[in-house]
Amino acid sequence: MAGERTASRLEAAFRRGRPALVAYLMAGYPDRTTSLRALARAADAGADVIELGVPYGDPLADGPVIADAAQVARRAPGGFGLAETIDLAREFISGRGDDCPPLVLMTYLNPLMSMGLPRAADLMREAGVAGVIVPDMPPEAARPWRAVAGGLDTVFLLAPTSTDERVRVVADASAGFVYCVSTTGVTGERETLADAGRRLVERVRAATTLPVAIGFGIGTPEQAAEAARIADGVIVGSAIVRRQHDPSVVGDFVRSLARAVHESGRGSAG
Amino acid sequence: MSGSLLPSAEEAYASPDAQGFFGPYGGTFVPETVVPALEELAHAFDEALGDPAFDAELGALLADYVGRPSPLYRADRLAEAVGLGTVWLKREDLNHTGAHKINNTLGQCLLAKRMGKRRVIAETGAGQHGVATATTAALMGLECAIFMGTEDIRRQALNVYKMRLLGAEVVPVADGTGTLADAVTAALRHWVERVEDTFYVLGSAVGPHPYPTIVRHFQKVIGEEALSQLREKGARMPDAVVACVGGGSNAIGIFYPFLRDVPADERPLLIGAEAAGLGLETDKHGAALTKGRPGVLHGFYSYLLQDEAGNPKEAYSISAGLDYPGVGPEHSYLKDAGLVRYEAVTDREALDAFALLARTEGIIPAIESAHALAMLPRLAAELGPDASVLVNVSGRGDKDMDIVREAGLGA
Ligand SMILES: Cc1ncc(COP(=O)(O)O)c(C=O)c1O
Fold first, then answer.
1. Element spanning B107, H or E
2. pTM attached to this predicted model
3. Which of B37, B257, B267, B277 could hold B316 in an S-S bridge, CB 3.0 to 4.6 Å?
């Protein structure tokens, strides 16, 4: 499917002949040790990709659960930010060796800029991070980052409001996978998976050979299974972060999500 | 325009470029959900600019509803008190609703109607932009919600009451410090959710492209009027033009025509007054240009008060309209290019200037505007007793009565 191009580690995680579960956790929440243990439980429980959130003070694209978790992590003694998140990722990845799902950092742009884009990219590569998601960095604004991001996949987001023209631009710019935001709105659990998300996934599929994942608003195994019938990957955030203070609960919950996703529907052509 | 061989500032810097950058500042750093809405807005704005009917409708409202042109008043008793030859006051405080904000909300709400939106939202700090938006929404029959920090709701109770009377819903924002920056975030997030039927009326020369350009366009009437009023009065070009800078809309409104239409060798010193709050040596100020460093907040790249890790810092000022950790991107450009000088004024200096204007001229300014007035003694020392200075009195002080009373003025 990928033709001559070799799939990146991140992309490969979506091409195992079944849909993939992407589990979002907030770094440093409620504290460093607990977040590290929750990461381990999520990986053990079958998360195919881990999205690790960088605590930030003005998370424009996030709903209350993730925004509040970020505040708690940020206010920890010494403060938890991008540098501490990369360090956490390094410890987690090196600790697991080969048995580690690819890890994607979700950060806002200003922490990257504040650290300096080249240094941020270097530290992430050294830590073994697979890619980044930067919700306030549309492809048009990404040139300085892409110039230094070699080896890291940059995942861009699409929304139901995106025009066909933007679907093309964003899908072309993405690497690893394309992130479809299922609803117009911030992160958070919702009652039903919006129809808008389904239509978006179909439009994106028509525009790219990359895996297509869907996120925002998915909070139960049932919703995850439903989402997995249309997409190559299902991203669950707030519902996990809400349980993150208890790593064993995170483990149980991620296991139920992974089972629902893996046993569901289509799966990507491997 | 004046036949000078020097390039105008507009020619000297493409302002902004097609992506909305003023030099390195500005741009569009927002979640994908709102990118199409911003593209749609830019398109609608371009179309409106090419439509004489739009100008005519806005012009009629500015004249008959706002009361423009606002007077240019020669404040001789103030000039004498501060030791300057001439002080000109541009009286934006005499606009309907009491500040320059109404120029912008009329323009943006007309755009909203053109785009077929039936609902507008806005953020507000001092409440002036909220009142102006609620007013315009009432006038145009648009549904209206105003996001406001809980601390500002406390500080600006009168304006909150006015917004409700005008039929707007005031949405309290308790996040963070409950001030303007938090209200902007809440409004942006809400916009992400309701982008299909909702127009975001941004209140200052900030935000993602095309907002800084749109706000400048609707506020440049201040400087255009001032220039022609000086000419009509046979007055010479002032030596300096001063405005306060929160996000920077009243300042860009008065500066821009001087940058665009006045050749560099005749151009007055342009000075923006930021909030130094309790002092620049403390953490309690709102001086993004003086003490910040460039970064991204609320969708644009500009000078920003931020911590080591890149989190926005809390800003502080006695005036709710100036305690914002960022500043409009064009101001960042103008600072770096040396085209405008930015200085910071403490709460104390602003209160003194507030009292001085009240006592010498019988004009009670907004505390925001008092920051610009506080530059007058400094300019007298710098430019000498014959100098002429134009100050933008961006708003009136009714909303600030409780604050100045608490501060002990007039006791
Ligand atoms: C009277 C007045 N002046 C100035 C400001 C600051 O805004 P800007 O810098 O956009 O003019 C405000 C903001 O609310 C205001 O109410």
1. helix B101-114
2. 0.94
3. B277
